[in-house]
Hints:
Elements: H1 2-45, H2 50-125, H3 137-144
Helix pairs in contact: 1-2
Amino acid sequence: xxxxxxxxxxxxxxxxxxxxxxxxxxxxxxxxxxxxxxxxxxxxxxxxxxxxxxxxxxxxxxxxxxxxxxxxxxxxxxxxxxxxxxxxxxxxxxxxxxxxxxxxxxxxxxxxxxxxxxxxxxxxxxxxxxxxxxxxxxxxxxxxx
Length: 145
């Protein structure tokens, strides 16, 4: 059982590592593409006048910022979705806690009411004279007072 647990943990770590490596490869590929685009744009703007070079540079920066903004917007949506999911789970958990607490309280109240009912029945069952030992008389009088 312990070895299976370790194997499962190792497989989980391996899978996470592979996913992370794949994500990093995609990120490197995207950066390489961006670098190639910038190099091509730079080579194209070399023979152009400085005003045109500035205009093209501004357009490229706007495009880059727009893409970055879209990525951030997507990340924000994922985080908001995760937040809503966690809030729902928290509400369910809190309701479960409240239910458990109320059940425990009800169980305790039922036990107490059963004990009170038992005491009441015992009181009803004993009617008439009280039988006691002579040596218990001082204790009995003290309890009656």
